[in-house]
Amino acid sequence: MVWVIKTKHENDQGETVGLELESEDGWLDANVRWDGCMEIHLYLVTEEGRELSDTLHTCDLQGLIERLQSLDSVCRSFFFQISRQGS
């Protein structure tokens, strides 16, 4: 996935303290602060445009990713077992 920097926020010393990023496909954007906290916006993208669908706030992106990967693993295992039982 390619991310585009839409806006770069700097403090009085010229240091970057925040970024506004958008995924190339328009499905996600994120407002990221220097301390690692961020707000992630999920969009429904249609031919007519895009509509905000949901917002996540986290100060631990890696922790969130690990939890989502764990959730994905449990779901895949569960539904794989069900699909094998049905065949």
Describe this structure in words.
The chain is of the alpha+beta class and about 90 residues long. It has one domain. It contains 1 helix and 5 strands; from the N terminus they run βββββα. Strands 1-2-3-4-5 form a 5-stranded antiparallel sheet, with no helix packed on it. The chain is flat. The N and C termini lie far apart (about 35 Å). The mean pLDDT is about 95.
Summary of the model, kept short:
The chain has 87 residues and is α+β, with helices and mostly antiparallel strands. The protein is 30% helix and 47% strand.
The percent range for strand residues is over 45%
Instruction: Give the N-to-C terminal Cα separation.
Output: 36 Å
**Helix/strand class:** alpha+beta
Number of domains: 1
Compute the CA-based radius of gyration.
18 Å
Helical fraction: 25-40%
Strand order of the largest sheet: 1-2-3-4-5
The biggest beta sheet is recorded as:
5 strands, antiparallel
Morphology: flat
Query: How many strands?
Result: 5
Nearest-integer average pLDDT: 94
* Low-confidence runs: none
What pattern of helices and strands is seen along the backbone?
EEEEEH
Q: What is the count of helical runs? A: 1
State the main characteristics.
87 residues, alpha+beta, 5-stranded antiparallel sheet, 1 helix, 30% helix, flat
